[in-house]
Amino acid sequence: MNSMESAKFLTTLITNYTFNDNKIETYVPFILETITQHQLLSSKSESSREQQVALHKWCTRINSLLQSKVTNARWAGICFIKISLKQSGELFIQNLQSWATSLMKSEPTFILKEIITTLTELFNKTQNRPELQREITTQQLPRFNTFLIKLSGLNKELLPTILNALSHSVKNFPTIFRPVNEQTQKLCLNILLDGTYYYESELAKMAIECFTRIINFGGKLNMDYWKLTLLKLVGSLNNILDRLFDTIDEEKDMPKKLTGFEMPQVSEDYVVAFPILFSRFKCLSECLISLISLPTSLPVQIPVNQILDLLYRVYNIYDVSFVTNSKDKNEYYTLMLGIPSLLMNCNKILSAAILSIGEHLTRHLRVISSVLLKLLNNSKSRWLLRVSTYNLITLCMQKYGIGLTNSISSSTLLSFIIDDIEIIQKSQYDISNNTPVSTNNKKSSKKKESSQITNSDALVNSSGLIYLQADNDVQCSALEVLKILLQTCGASISSNKRLSLDNILLSRILSQNISSTYNSSKILLNEENVNMKLYECLLFSIISPSEYQPTILPHALRIFSAGQNSQSTQLQSFCSYALSICDLIYHSRLPPLERSSASTPITQQLEHTTVENISQHSYIENNDNSNMLVLEQSQKTFDIVPEEANTLIIEQNTVNKLEINIDKAITAEENNVLRGDNKSKPNIMEDGSKNNISIDDKVNMQKVELPQSTSLEMKKKRIRSPSPIGEKEELSKEDKEKDHDRVFKSLRMVDTNDDSDDDMEIPEIIMEGPDSEFEDNE
């Protein structure tokens, strides 16, 4: 679209849809979509005079809408400013001062939300422009930050939007943000320590993000301040656990307590206090995770020991007992209700520590592996905690590899995985056992026995209903751990465990073809995520086979081949990839062997020759049409050489000892001879392998006329071989008769210098095409 068309479209929008303030809100979606589709405000190329006039009308109309007395018209003007900032940098520079000044005023809530997001985007675009920062941002941004702090105490609905704007301000302009640093940090802590906000709510997430950015980018930019804040978070979490674990007997040698943030007092009644304390623990743990995960402006030191002591205190909760009989047991049971959520948050903290600290946790792997196995043992009926534990094990294996597998008990871990991924088959229902037995008592025969089937569902599903023990998410996470375990140390798994795993994988995949009777179980088995994990584990089981049992590669080939016909495109692509891996395993590749290079004319002549023809007949024919058999000693495969090399090969054969097959001397005719072509032809040599005769002189190949009896015997010994592929020409009757006489009057005789002067008659092998009329002429 050229500039003139763009100017006409923009002028049409302004004229038809923006001059009625009372109805403009109904046209805002259409206007925004049209501008986005045609990019009417962008100035990529040199703008014409018409386009400049249209853009000026657009900016004038926006300023008029901002000053309108109609609320919806002002909202429409703010929406037009946002799309102008996205498409045109020229409009941004020209109107930055006027728009920043006119937007900061009190408006209704839905307009204030648009104002805050628009001003945030407007100031962020000045980040890499020092001149604009000096003239506009330095003057307007402190005013905007103060406006947000005041607004946070007046309008609670806008708190997520306000905290999001403050977090961007402290990240992009930390120096300008310092006057409101403490106030913003206090605002975030009040939200996190309140205990009434859910930790996954939008408000809690924005408070965590804003607090983390204040610590990482704002305030006192030094390592001690960052570490002090992190220790305060750990101390606050320990203070919360002190109140929660009041009814249990913990270890007496507790680490030194750390000071934490000041928190509001909770009620003495555990029924009221425990939900608030659990919420505080979750929010502060998420803040701790964010603090050690996000990047910092300076290198910092993470207090690893204090964090691990906090985690071990929660992980050991199942090893402690009820303290005394003086405590209320109901409070202990109420505590046990929230323990899974505490453990899940500790798993998140440990995952963040592994990603941040890395190899520095290597010396703690043995303790961490024991904690992981303990969590799996205590979470058999807690599926969410089990999924979290499996995800943590996956992260540890990916991060530490064989180091963790040496520390953790692989057999115990595999036992948990097998329990989660195996299928259970219900015993078949025997209808014959429930058939009522006829008796003489008519009254009793009319009554139904208690064990008799009273509905038809059991009869329909009476042939072995298959159902799963674990949830689909648990299966996916367990199969992911199994895949990494096979990839890391698959060959070192014990034979019994490996056999069980392979059987389960094959049975789970093959059970998809069960009868349509089990529709309910088939839905569970056909979950796409679970199926993908099963196929991935099967592939890694093939890549890392066991050394003590047969491979399951033949079964996997059939499964992957059938998977290419699956309805799932993701599964089809994976099966194609898996088959390529199996092909590399099944057919090992070796480097190409060096062969004698053929000349260019030979390559051109081989266009009408196949490997089958070369392997089934070989011959040598000189220019004078005299047949000569050249037998080479060293090669065990067929080599193709040009006719010019015949002389050199024969001279070498006179010096070296040749292996001559006395029982099977081969004579062949080339298709070019039949066509009367006397050009140079390739010579194909084959070595003998049965009887060896030492020769000191040249090997003489002579033609001898055969008697009639010998000719009759040769007819019985003829062996047909397919003719070379190429163009065929019909021979005349005279040529066929000449060819018949010539073939049956040839005999190869071998003369040696040894004492034995025996002449040997060698049967002929006639290399003749299958469609020849040679037999008919006889």
From TrEMBL:
Domain Pre-rRNA-processing protein RIX1 N-terminal positions: 24-193
Coiled coil: none
Subcellular locations according to the entry: Nucleus
Ranges of Acidic residues composition bias in the record: 752-762
Annotated region described as Disordered, given as residue ranges: 705-778
GO biological process: rRNA processing
Bias (Basic and acidic residues): 726-744
Keyword Transport among UniProt keywords: no
InterPro entries per UniProt: ARM-type_fold, RIX1_N
Keywords: Nucleus
Pfam families, A to Z: RIX1
GO cellular component: nucleus
Taxonomy, superkingdom: Eukaryota
PANTHER family: PROLINE-, GLUTAMIC ACID- AND LEUCINE-RICH PROTEIN 1
Protein family (similarity comment): Belongs to the RIX1/PELP1 family.
Protein name from the UniProt record: Pre-rRNA-processing protein RIX1
Source species of the chain: Rhizophagus irregularis (strain DAOM 181602 / DAOM 197198 / MUCL 43194) (Arbuscular mycorrhizal fungus)
